[in-house]
Amino acid sequence: MVSAPGTYSQTGGTTTLTGALTVGDGSAAASSISVSGGTFQSTGFTVGASTATSAATNVSASITGNAVINVTTNNFNVGLGATQGASLLVADSADINIPNTASSTGNVFIGRDTSKNATFTMTGGTIDTGRNFLLGSGLGATGIVGNQSGGTITTTLNFVVTDTGGASKYNLSGTGAILSNGVVIVGRQSNTGEMNQTGGSVTAAQGVSIGNAQSATTTLWGTGVYNVSGGTITANQIVGGTALAIAPQGTGTLRVKGDDATFDINGDMTVSAAGSGMGTLAYQLETGDLLSKIDVSGNATFSTGAILSFDTSIATPTEATYDLLTAADIIDNGIAFNGPAGWNYHIIAGGNGEILQLFQPGPSGTLGDFNSDGKVDAADYVTWRQNEVANSTLANDGGAVDQAARYALWRGNFGNPPGTGSGLTGSQVPEPASALITFSAVVGLVAHRRR
Questions:
Q1: Closest by CA position to 188, among listed 215, 157, 206, 169
Q2: Which member of 139, 149, 185, 188 lies 3.0 to 4.6 Å from 174 by CB, making a disulfide possible if both were Cys?
Q3: In the chain, what are the domain boundaries?
C-alpha cells in the first residue's frame, strides 16, 4: 500500500504501482491526488481511509483531462472506514477502468463503512466497472452525495443508491448517462436512498427497483424515492424479473414532475408487493405543464394499498384529464387515491391497451359519462361497476348519492350524444343484477380486471 499524506499531481506519462494507492491514510487530512493526463495504474484506489486511532478528513481526488486510471485487482473507494469529507471529481474525457478479477472486486464505492459526507462529482469522462457502482455501503454511512451532469457510468452488475444502509442521494442532470447491465436500485436496504433526475439518461438492462432489500430472507428493507422531472428512463426486463418495481419490498415512491421526462418500460410494472411493499406512484404538476406518461409494454399491477398521488401544491390543474400511464393491462387490486377534491382516477381503453387517467368532471359534461370521454356508452358501465365498493363520486353523475342512482342516470342517458353508443338498444342495456360475464363481450374493448 502506498499512502499519500500530501499532494500528488500527474499531467502526463505513466505511473504504475505494484500495490494499492491510498490517498489520505489515517491522520493525513486534506491530502489530494490530481491526474490530468497520462496513465495511472494500481491494484486498488482509495480516497480517504482510517486506522484504529485516526480517520482522514477532506481527502480529494481529481481525474480530469485525458487521464486514464486503471485499477487492476481491487476496488475504487471514496470514503473508507470512519473518514469524513472524501471526494472524487471526474471530468473532461478522463477514463476510469475497474475490471472484475474476483467475487469482491471491480466495484466503485462512494461512502463505505461509517464514513460521512463523501461526495462524487462527474461532469464528463467514463467509468467502467467490472461489478457495481454503489453509494452508501455500510450501516452508519451518512451524507453520501453523487452529482452527475455529464459523462457515462457503465456497470457490469448494479447501480445502487443506498446499498447496505448508508443514507445517500444521487442527482442526475444534463447529459449524464448511467448504463447498468444489472438493476438500478434506489434504497436497497435499511436506510433511505434518493434519486433526483432532471436530465440525462438511465438505462437498466434488468429493471429499475425503488425500495428493496435484494434478499428474500431479510427484513432490513430500504426506502427509495425516485424524483423525475426530465431526461429518459429505459427499463428492460429479464425472465423472472420486473422492468419497473416500486416497493417490491420496503417503501418506494416514484414521483413524476411535469411533462419533460420519457419513460420506456419494456416489460411489466408493479406498485407494492403483498405483505412487504408499500409503494406510491406520485405525480406533481408544474406551472404550464402536463404530466409525463409512463409507457409500459407489459402489464401494470397495483397491489392492495398501492397509493396513487396527485400533487397540485405547485401548480393548479388546467386540464380536465391527465393521462398518467399506459400498459397492455392495468390491474387495480385496490388503489388508494390521494388528490385534490373533485379529482379521481379511472382506467380507460387506449394507448398500449389501457390508460390510467386522472379526471375531473367538467361543468358541461354529459350526464352518465362517467369516464369523461364525451359519450355515454359501455365504457361508462365498466367505470360504474368499478365503483361498487368505494361508492365514490363519479364524473358527470349529477350529484347522485349511491350506485343505484348512478346506474339509473347512466341507463337513462345511454347513447348520448346520439350516434355514440355501443350499438345496444334501450332494451338491451344491462340491469345492475345481470351477470357481468354476459356483458363482457360487449365491453371487451375496455375490459378492466380487478384482482
A1: 215
A2: 149
A3: 2-446
